[in-house]
Fold this protein.
Amino acid sequence: MKSRRLISYLILLSLMPFLLAGCWDRRELEDQAFIITIGIDKLENNQSLITFRIGIPSKSGLGQAGGGGGGGGKGSIAEQASLLTTIAAPTIPAAMLLASGYIDRELSLLHTKAVIFGEEFARDGVTNALGILTRNRELRRNIFVAVAKGNAYEFLRNNGPDLEKSYSKYWEGVKLMESAEAIHPGTLLHQFITDAARPDKQPSMIYLAINKNAEGDPKEIELPPSFKQGKLAIKAGEIPRKGGNKAEYLGTAIFKSGKLIDFLNLTETRSLLMLQGNFKKTFYFLLDPKFEGKQISFDIKQGSPPAVKVSIKGDQISIKEELFLEGDLIGFQSQAEYASSPQALERLNQETSKELEQRLMEVIKKGQKLGLDIVGYGTYAKRNFLTNAEWENFDWIDKFKDAEINLKVNFSIRRTGMQGKQPEILTY
Amino acid sequence: MYRLKEGKISSNGIFGIIVILIITKVFLGIPRVAVQEGGSASWLLLLMSAGIASAGVFIIVKLIKKFPDKNIVDIAETLWGPPGRVIVAAVMASIFLYISTVVVREFAETILTTVLPRTPISIVTLMFVITMVLGAYNGLEVITRSVTLLIPFILVGITSILLLAGSFIDLNNFFPLLGTGIDKLVVHAPGRSSIYIDIVMVTLIISNVNEPEKIPQQVWKGFLFSTAVFVVVQLFYVSILTIHAGSKLYIPLFQLARIIYMGRFVQRIEVLYVFVWFFTGALQLTLTLYGAVTALSRGFKIPIYQPLLFPLGLLVFSLSFVPQSTLHAVSLDMNILRKYGSLIGFGVPAALLLTSVVLRKGGKTGEKQKTN
């Protein structure tokens, strides 16, 4: 009896491997090619130019990264450890199918980090492409979505990270720059498709571009006019510099009805993030209110989330937003007593608050002019309605452009750094 | 012959059984359907449907208290005679067979859609059915022990997914507070009380429970706890995914798990979710198959239920392929079972309770008659 039971167990055990699902879904690592970045550009007749940046893990340990060999054109290790290919196809799955005609590995989207839309494609609308992206089981909703100036393939071709061995790590770094420096909105696919579907907040994407002036003699660098006004009103592709990776991620692409309509520069992007409460910290530069032509630098943090109150009377919308920002004084060029006199510091707080209010209002007004609630005041306005139907019938987007907005910024410098009074330098 | 024992469980085991039977639905379409019907007030819809279902639970508890030593088919025989016994047994078996069939297909489809796209659905379904049959074969005691062992892991799994996705929470997504409107909530809530009909299983296993007098307390605890899990998951779901995305996701919690990103080292944790999901599904399916065979064996006075397992398992396996597609299977679950199921699931115990009151039969009534 015992031996019969043992035999039946052994038979059952020997049959189990045939039932294991791994037999069908077994995919060896060396049989797969992981697409790290996807670029989508417009072609005629509803066709697209799909670019894949595919990782070659076996080559990513070629040597030490760095050394300024980047800037596109197989210079950096990340570029050498990857394959770039562009295919004309109606959709991403079709492009993957066609690519399997010359890439002898199974293409996988499991490790995709970013989807980049060419400017022209984005202006025509990204809705159809998003439908394919969200339905795909391999692609995650926490990947970046971005718009590249000109063509996505051009951005991908010229993006040669200097410090990273792989593009996966590069995109992790891009993500870090959202929280560390607030230079782009860090939009994920999940956020974009959610915002695109709701009337209470309009979506945006990260703005990317290739800096065509990144190579050459530093003497050729031209100073952007906004710098003289204490603003960094530049976007990706416009950083005045020479050297380094030509690919830049700076600014915001704004969408209306799924179509790209405008951009926000660096200053505006940071204003938007502050208004949204999606801002952690950044270095910030202003003109010294007391000394003409002199600059002051801060390290600004969000003290606490913005307090927003939206009142609605009939069709009249009144919005009150109060921001609580705090900062460290990083440096100033004048001989002011900001770091030694509490009164001077308080005056600087007030002046800075005013300046920030003005800059932030510019972004709100820009949104209103475009007929968009890019900050997302609608998410607060919903509190005034009892049902979804009432809210949708109110037609927020249409009425928001005439909304009265009162903004108050409470900026407070907490620390003034390692130095008290400015170092004195004798002039003789 | 020890293997053919059903086993005895403690009254605490009832709590685990109810929790597993109910909360499995958070992994399937309930969060999505609740958003479609309740909008930003989907949590309120679930709370209202639980309120309505509490009447059904009250009826079941009352019936158990009236007939503390009888299962539902015995009660039916007492009140309606032998035909009543057969009819109630057939109805109970049909409910659990329906649940098993539809849920096994849904679980198989979701596994194919997410992690095993190339595996034939028959293999995935077969795996589930083998688990169900083996689990049910070992009896209620073994199932309950497994439930008690795995529930903490399942709850920790669900909680961690919700908390890790917490960085996306926006409390404004709870507004407008009444969602689709109180009129629509009132219309949909009674139907969605069907989420809780699995509780009727308790009426089949009374004789397997030590300290049956503690069953009502455990039923209420299980029901309230499951409702709390539903509402909390729904609150997170709406606040993270919004009603706009939340009403369109086929596998809601899986998507929630997939957006988790806590730095470079804490991401792609949906693997954790798949384990939780599989264990919960396997336990629920084992319990529902056990419910179906127990109803039949007790209804037809078959001394052991095990011989029924293979044919019923085969039936579940075969019937699960009847729906043409995932959408058809989901529709059979969400638009029929979880919309009208309470009419039968709570209706049968209600009819029995009503009969016992009218005929003045049953424990407490009898006692009252004696004292009077």
Chain B touches chain A through 37 residues (CB under 8 Å).
